[in-house]
Amino acid sequence: MKPFEQLVTDHGTTVLRICRVLLGPGADAEDAWSETFLAALKAYPELPADANHEAWLVTIARRKAIDIIRIRTRTPVPAADLPELPSAHGNPGQDDGGLWRAVGALPVRQREAIAYHYLAGFPYKEAAELTESTPAAVRRAAADGIAKLRLIYPRRPGSPATEGVVK
Amino acid sequence: MTALDPAALLSPLAAPDPELLRRLHLRLETAAGDAGALDLAYTTIGTPVGRLLLAATDRGLVRVAFAGEDHDAVLAALAATISPRILRAPSRLAEAVRQLEEYFAGSRRRFELPLDRRLSKGFRLSVLEHLPDIAYGRTESYGQVAAAVGSPKAVRAVGTACATNPLPVVVPCHRVLRSDGSFGGYLGGPEAKAYLLGLEAAA
């Protein structure tokens, strides 16, 4: 069995990407990452020797993130705190704030599909198993999510800004 | 107009700041310790005899390893024999690091650290427990050590015990020489043994 430190080194970044896409790049994602690795460390000696460490960790991370989303949605959010519409101007690729807000406005299933397939690199089939979905549904959710984000960043960085249409 | 491919579109989301990962690691070290889930903490330090790996359980320092032993292999062995719940957690080794730095600076002659001896058993353990009785700057022969632990004929076994010392430097197997005064083997290599004996002779 590998020393647990090796798992943190190998998969810490992927787990953090997933937590941030599901929860936004703030304290909630940091809490989810910390809770994921602490729970994994506790359970690690009982993990079967042939287990896929990355799949195991991102499954725990998803459970922690969903717990946090449930707590959030039970708390009424004042209208003033609704996400702002991202600007179509600015500097694509560097305007993280706008992109993060846009990701945060996507339905959870689309955020999951983007996180697992595009950021963690799981094929649709594996992403579906890890998120209790089907490959077709994950593919569709990822495509829908990307299409919405493209409305905000329609062009390659460096091309002239256009009037973005965001509905 | 060319639409961004998904990888380019998502690239600002993909690379978390390394500083954030360091902070999260530190938080994990603390939380794991508080939860009693950290069975082995380790760190590495640079010394005149090369980089040393230090590993500790909640009972004390359990392993010191020279670079030549391959630190990754040593950690893998600890995962198999003690527990895989291992994290790099330098704060847990701060006192050991401080005393080793003092030793290499020539200002410490005796280590005062809790030791976890679980990696040594039987005759080897009695040999290793005798070694701190050899004073700083002094040496004994393998035969003298064998006599001191009550098995004067077990000279070879003393050699084996020293060669498999899990806590070199701290448990001074470098103070044991062949009866003709030559060095005998050493886990850290003959240069490291010569360095330690020279350091102690000079202080």
TrEMBL record, chain A:
This is Sigma-70 family RNA polymerase sigma factor. Keywords: DNA-binding, Sigma factor, Transcription, Transcription regulation. The keyword Transcription applies. Belongs to the sigma-70 factor family. ECF subfamily. Residues 99-149 form the RNA polymerase sigma factor 70 region 4 type domain. The keyword Nucleus does not apply. It comes from the Bacteria. InterPro entries: RNA_pol_sigma-70-like, RNA_pol_sigma-70_dom, RNA_pol_sigma70_r2, RNA_pol_sigma70_r4_t2, RNA_pol_sigma_r2, RNA_pol_sigma_r3/r4-like, WH-like_DNA-bd_sf. Residues 7-74 form the RNA polymerase sigma-70 region domain.
UniProtKB/TrEMBL annotation, chain B:
Gene3D superfamilies: Methylated DNA-protein cysteine methyltransferase domain, Winged helix-like DNA-binding domain superfamily/Winged helix DNA-binding domain. Coiled coil: none annotated. Residues 41-116 form the Methylguanine DNA methyltransferase ribonuclease-like domain. It is found in: Cytoplasm. CDD domains: ATase. The active site is at C173. Residues 123-201 form the Methylated-DNA-[protein]-cysteine S-methyltransferase DNA binding domain. It comes from the Bacteria. Its EC number is 2.1.1.63. InterPro entries: MethylDNA_cys_MeTrfase_AS, MethylDNA_cys_MeTrfase_DNA-bd, MethylDNA_cys_MeTrfase_DNAb, MethylG_MeTrfase_N, MGMT, MGMT_N_sf, WH-like_DNA-bd_sf. It catalyses: a 6-O-methyl-2'-deoxyguanosine in DNA + L-cysteinyl-[protein] = S-methyl-L-cysteinyl-[protein] + a 2'-deoxyguanosine in DNA; a 4-O-methyl-thymidine in DNA + L-cysteinyl-[protein] = a thymidine in DNA + S-methyl-L-cysteinyl-[protein]. Keywords: Cytoplasm, DNA damage, DNA repair, Methyltransferase, Transferase. Belongs to the MGMT family. Involved in the cellular defense against the biological effects of O6-methylguanine (O6-MeG) and O4-methylthymine (O4-MeT) in DNA. Repairs the methylated nucleobase in DNA by stoichiometrically transferring the methyl group to a cysteine residue in the enzyme. This is a suicide reaction: the enzyme is irreversibly inactivated. This enzyme catalyzes only one turnover and therefore is not strictly catalytic. According to one definition, an enzyme is a biocatalyst that acts repeatedly and over many reaction cycles. NCBIfam families: ogt. HAMAP family: OGT. This is Methylated-DNA--protein-cysteine methyltransferase. It comes from Arthrobacter hankyongi. The lineage of its organism: Bacteria, Bacillati, Actinomycetota, Actinomycetes, Micrococcales.
